[in-house]
Amino acid sequence: MLTIGKVSRRFGLSRTALIYYDKIGLLKPAGRSAANYRLYTEKDLLKLEKIHQFRQAGIPLEQITQLLHTDSPMTISTLELRLHQLNREIDGLREQQQVIVNLLQNHTLLSNTHNMTKARWIGLLRSAGMSDEAMQQWHVAFEAGSPEIHEAFLQSLGITPKEIEQIRAWAKKGISR
After folding, report:
1. In what order do the strands lie in the sheet with 31-32?
2. How crowded is the C-beta side of 56, counted as CA atoms within 13 Å?
3. Confidence (pLDDT) at 106
4. Helix (H) or strand (E) holding 40
5. Do 85 and 60 meet the contact criterion of CB atoms below 8 Å apart?
6. pLDDT the model gives residue 108
7. pLDDT mean values, one per 10 residues, the chain (177 residues)
């Protein structure tokens, strides 16, 4: 059995966090020492590992409590919902990033944003030897295989909604040829 100090160090949590988890019933230690210190078993550590993973995914403690006591379909739906939330947040942050760059009227700032831009992407494809026709075929294949992901990728490049609509329209025509 491990003491609270050893468990907190192992998981990078504060003692206070573990005491709070105990208080709210999220993670009750398996036992207590003669001096009344909390003691954790391997089973407790496995549960804490799950809690830690859910926390890293941004799941609130209240939901984690529910997830630990339910079946996997609820876990899957909760994680899928969180993933969709993160995707929306990322899209929103990219839009904000683009607005700030436009307000500053300095597109060279994009090189410091860790974002792939349309110009960077095209430059990369060209340096890999792709012709315009090959790039069009790439869009056709992407649209045919994963239309939602294709749209999200185009959005991530900072392409305007109107241009995305145009690209997807001719890519769809290329599919039906």
Report:
1. 2-3, 38-40, 31-32
2. 9
3. 62
4. strand 38-40
5. no
6. 61
7. 95 96 95 95 96 95 89 85 92 82 66 73 93 93 93 86 92 77
Question: Both tokens of residue 105?
Answer: 């009227």
Tokens (6 digits) for 29: 């230690």
Q: Residue ranges of the domains in the chain?
A: 2-69, 116-176
C-beta of residue 147 within 8 angstroms of C-beta of residue 168 = yes
- How far apart (Å, rounded) are the C-alpha atoms in residues 25 and 5? 19
Please, what is the angle between helix 132-145 and helix 161-176, to 10°? 90
Secondary structure element (H or E) that encloses residue 3, with its range: strand 2-3
CA 162/CA 177 separation, integer angstroms = 23
Q: Which CATH class is domain 2-69?
A: mainly alpha
- Report the distance separating Cα 87 and Cα 89, nearest Å: 5
Cα separation, 76 vs 162, in Å, equals: 34
* Terminal-residue alpha carbon distance, the chain: 67
Label residue 155 exposed, middle or buried (CB < 10 Å: 0-12, 13-18, 19+).
middle
Any residues with CB less than 8 A from the CB of 38 and at least 6 apart, and which? 3, 4, 18, 19, 22, 29, 32
